[in-house]
Design brief:
This protein is mainly beta. It contains three helices and 46 strands. A five-stranded antiparallel sheet has the order 2-1-4-7-6, with no helix packed on it. A four-stranded mixed sheet has the order 3-9-8-5. Strands 11-18-17-14 form a four-stranded mixed sheet, with no helix packed on it. A hairpin with a 4-residue loop joins strand 41 and strand 42. The N and C termini lie far apart (150 Å). This is Cadherin-12. Keywords: Calcium, Cell adhesion, Cell membrane, Glycoprotein, Membrane, Metal-binding, Repeat, Signal, Transmembrane, Transmembrane helix. It is a single-pass type I membrane protein.
Length: 676
Amino acid sequence: MGNAEEMHGWTVKMSTPSVLAVVTVFSMIPGGVLSDMRGAQGLETQQLAQGSTHLHRRLRRGWIWKQLFVPEEDPTPRVIGQLKSDSDRGEFSIKYVLSGEGAGDAFEIDEYSGEIRTLKKLDREEKAFYILQAQAINRRSNEPEEPQSEFIIKVQDINDNVPQFQNEPYVSSIPEMCPTGTTVAQVTATDADDPMFGNNAKLIYSILQGEPYFSVEPKTGIVVTSWPNMDREAREQYLVVVQVKDMLGLSGGYSSSTTVTVSLTDVNDNGPTFQHHLYTFAVPEDAQVGTTVGRIMAEDGDVGINAKMTYSLEDDLEESSTFIIETDPTTQEGVVLLAKPLDYESKRRFVMAAEAVNDHVDTRFLNLDEFSDRTTLKIVVEDVDEPPVFLSPAYEWKVPENAAVGSEVGSVSARDTDTVNNPIRYSIDKRSDATKAFKIDPNNGTITVAKALDRETSNWHNVTVEAKETSQNHLSSSVVVFIKVLDINDNVPRLARDYQPYICEGTQAGELIQLLSAVDPDDPVEGHHFYFSMVPEKHINPNFTIRDNQDNTAGIVARRSTFTRKDRTQYVLPVVVADSGSPALSSTSTLTITVCSCQPAGHCPTGGVEALALSMGLSLQTLLGILICLVTLTGKQVLPSNFIPPQPGLSYIITSSREYAGVYLEFGLLDVLIWL
């Protein structure tokens, strides 16, 4: 070649079932693999390490390997190719070594000839190719004759897989009456075979079931409609069977099928239609408002929102809105309801038109007037024997509590609404007037006072009056009469409670001693207003005065500051309370004001006992002596010295237990326990 570089290379023989090729690859081919250059550098480094004084020239290597092929699913071991180094002179001085994917398991190499053979059946779908490395080693020196080089064995595909549909099951819906060519669904199948080798994975789709309504695009699997104006009311669902074949549908290939369930969705292509031109109903005259008179139905072949309709009524000219009609949302029926009370004696027959109209119309399929229909309703009122009817649903009257017996309170009135017009008699339900305070005239319904009334005992009377026919079925009805008893000023006002006022020694003039209030059973319209005053006398009371607060309360106020128990223990003060009635009534209450030796907080601890004793002319020491004697005579024991007395100023009740004995004294209604 005109240079000092050596030329080395591999010879690769590739064996296929029908082709035998010999390819010689030289190391100086441009674009050599870098691994081969690394292999040459490795040899030079190894020689230097072994002490060689001769520096070999750097070798340029360039190994390019073609692919080797082996058919998949071939159970017979066979030679698929041969590797041969340019250094191999046929003297078996070269040893061939195979490594990498599948070496020793799927493939082996004859170390003398370099033939590569298979060891087992291969599956391309499991592994499509194997990457292996080959190396030529000098048997004498055990040194690489050629650098290690890489090559590929590719598993050649055969048609051994059935195409499979993905994303099953296929369910689709399209509107009825849709145009031809409307897309229904797209079915997709895959084939595990090699799409780049022959026609093994070339798929084609066709219809097995569903024609002439549907067709499929052979290459894409898109299912479309091929029949115009499919009607949901005639058929709602179709099953389309699609087949897929590999090998472009040629014989010898594999196939599979899938089903597409196609449902037609509803469009509003039908209007409501009444099956009868006349509907007749009967209703009794005593039917309650809201009673269902009857049901009518307009048929509509559509479903869902397209079948929804609204009914309406057009009354005849003689009566208006006696009946209404509503749509039952579940059955889409028209429900005729009574909207007003009926009276057989006034009107016995109603004739009206009923109309049903679709809520949602679609003029693509029908004219606007085809979405409605009309029919006629005839409603007959049936006669019913009815009880008497009071002219008023309730009565409310007022009567003063001082009304004289026999005074007229008011009158009730009822009539028989039937054509017979039977006579009526009135009576009071005894359970509603237990006190028999009123009576009624059975012929004209006039109610009068039967006994004296007292508002303070009962201010309302709820009386039930019954009206009954005197003939035929003796039907009856009742009404409630509310009678309010009006108040008159017939009760005197009184103090609100039994006041027991006391005044402490040292009280200053002008101080409030007791706050008073009053009560009155009467109930004046403008509310109570009480007036408080003292009994008129010739001389002004020097000790106390009554101060009216003008709010239905009054205060007892001291007029001087020299109250002592030694001077006087009790004072009597008459108090006059008057109301604002017409005529005004009043009462006088006499209060006893006790002088007390009060504690700093103003509390009178003895409750007036000490004052009572003083008023009897006894000193406190004398009173205690008497009490001790009483204890001795009655066998009561004095409390032990270690007993802790209760808090002063509190009230205690003596018990029969000997453990807690004290001195017990009774002064009339006043019980006092004095602890020793």
